[in-house]
Design a protein that fits this description.
seven-stranded mixed sheet, mainly beta, Immunoglobulin-like, 4 domains, ten-stranded mixed sheet, disordered N terminus
Length: 435
């Protein structure tokens, strides 16, 4: 089996000790480059005999010699040489052209030489291509092994690597929304082969139960986000933590506004709908913090009519009257308009002071009618003079000149009080006898 190489240059001082007949060590060696991997055989074992390392290829042309070292728990940080500076030609060649280098001792032997007894964890072999003399090196081949106990080893990592995951979160519709809106949260987990569940959260509060991931996505729809600012996240938990790592999305800011007011009871004009009466615009809204009113005559707003109540005037008769209510809160406004109602004529004017007749009640004299007082006040009057209760022809003015026909009879005047938008009121004066 081939392994990823670990680059390691043998320190110049260590090489100087090991090189047989080394001379001229003052030259500076070039930085070793990774040339390939080593195959360790047997791939697994109990460390009862020496291993063999085989390079994945040949050393570069300038190299004539090699050194093999090992690093790991218990060994010096710069490595222990397990094969000293040796000519490459003394070793066999593999079918692929690699160099086959037997190790003459076991790992336990090398550990004893380094001054420790327990082999554990990862150890890395490095074969360095070099010259016979000096410190120049021409690259490395490398391979790791793992001791799972003090005697057993293998050339594969006993702890399999865990694949990292990423989780991203999206929300639709986009923020801001009003309270009660159905919001869909979608988490995307990569790689999409990662199985597990996603827990959606609002801050530290879980939103519903964990949702299974399918083809890299998990989704949750909720209408429970309250008005205010939210920090939404999606947390992925893998089904097999030995294969995939957990991950969490970055927080997604999300704003939910107060829902605009809702109509609870539709607007309605209440009260007696006739001139002179006061009517009320009755309506109720849920969630409103304030309300405004507008009165409409035949569908058009009446200038200045913005109170909840309205006293109907003559101009309202006989038109269609409605009211519009606009309720508002921080989330917006909602308007509703009442059905229109027809404004009726006001009641007949009411006489509060009886009409009277002034002047001398004799033939040839002029009598004058006083209309009295009316509520509401009249704006014009009509007159009918009567003789013994019967209308006198032509007697329709505010004054009347008595004739010989009137002598000895009772004269009265009937007043008709008039005001726009109201029914007429009538009242009759006391009678006077013409002498």
């Amino acid at each position: 089996m081939m392994f990823t190489s670990v680059r390691r240059s043998v320190p110049a001082g260590l090489a100087a000790v090991l090189v047989a007949g080394a001379i001229g060590l003052g030259a500076t060696g070039a930085e070793a480059a990774s040339l390939g991997t080593l195959e360790v055989s047997p791939a697994t074992g109990t460390d009862t005999s020496g291993m063999t390392v085989t390079t994945s290829g040949a050393c570069p042309g300038p190299a004539t010699n090699l050194i093999v070292s090992v690093t790991g728990s218990g060994f010096p940080s710069d490595g222990k040489v397990v094969v000293s500076n040796s000519p490459i030609g003394t070793y066999q060649t593999s079918p692929a052209g690699g160099i086959v280098v037997p190790l003459t001792e076991t790992m336990r032997d090398y550990a004893n030489e380094a001054g420790f007894q327990t082999l554990q964890g990862r150890y890395d072999f490095t074969l360095t291509c070099r010259g016979a003399f000096g410190s120049a090196t021409y690259g490395d081949f490398g391979a790791p092994i793992w001791f799972t106990s003090n005697t057993a080893y293998q050339n594969t990592d006993p702890v399999p690597s865990v694949t990292a995951t990423t989780t991203t979160l999206a929300a639709t519709p986009a923020s801001p929304v009003v309270a009660g809106t159905s919001v869909k949260l979608t988490a995307t987990v990569a790689p999409n082969t990662a199985a597990g569940t996603v827990q959606f959260k609002d801050g530290t509060q879980a939103l519903g139960s964990p949702v299974a991931v399918s083809a890299g996505t998990a989704a949750l729809t909720t209408s429970a986000l309250a008005a205010g600012s939210h920090s939404l996240t999606a947390v992925f938990t893998p089904s097999d933590a030995a294969v995939y790592a957990p991950s969490a999305s970055t927080a997604l800011p999300y704003t939910v506004k107060v829902k605009p007011p809702t109509v609870v009871t539709a607007p309605k004009v209440t009260g007696t709908v006739r001139v002179g009466s006061t009517v009320t615009c009755s309506a109720t809204f849920g969630g409103a913090t304030s309300s405004t009113y507008a009165w409409l005559r035949d569908g058009s707003a009446i200038g200045g009519a913005t109170a909840r109540t309205r006293t109907l005037v003559a101009a309202d008769y006989p038109h269609k009257l409605a009211c519009r209510v606009t309720a508002t809160n921080s989330g917006g406004s909602t308007s509703a308009t009442s059905p229109a109602v027809t404004v009726a004529r006001g009641p007949a004017l009411k006489n509060t002071t009886r009409p009277s007749v002034t002047g001398t009640a004799k033939t040839g004299k002029r009598l004058t009618a006083k209309p009295g007082s009316w509520k509401p006040a009249a704006t014009s009057y009509g007159y009918v003079w009567k003789r013994d209760g019967h209308a006198i022809r032509g007697g329709t003015h505010s004054t009347y000149v008595l004739t010989r026909t009137d002598k000895g009879h009772l004269i009265t005047v009937t007043i008709t009080a008039k005001r726009s938008g109201y029914a007429n009121g009538t009242a009759t004066s006391k009678s006077v006898r013409v002498g």
